[in-house]
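SUBJECT: A protein chain and its fold
Encoding: whole-number codes for local backbone shapes
RECORD BEGINS BELOW THIS LINE
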Amino acid sequence: TTMAYRVKEEDFRELAAQALDSLPDEFRDRMENVVVVVEDYPSLDDAARAGVRREELLGLFHGVSRPKQEWGGGAPYQLPERIVLYKRNIENICSTKEDLIEEIRLTVLHEIGHYFGLSEEDLEKYEKE
């Protein structure tokens, strides 16, 4: 295996912010009340809920997806939806800064996709951009 590519947490957060900024407009324009959180590793609970081994989970979406919100009339005092990025797990599969940037982008894209209720197939067309 390659060495993990590690960065300081503030650098990782900066890359995550750039990844959000680089999302397709149709996502960015409709994202309300979404925060991106960086954690080192998922809890065992979160990994179990995602059905993924703890060291393989790269990101997780916490909250109510847009389709469900719209269908449910949207609770006005809702907590923000959270996209959590698991820094160590993402770094562990990267060996260069370019890898890291791309992996963060894909993870953010996937979690935002879940927020919009998109399937993995729907998301594939955005991955290539």
The two ends are 27 Å apart (CA to CA). The mean pLDDT is 86. Strands lie at 34-39, 59-62, 81-86.
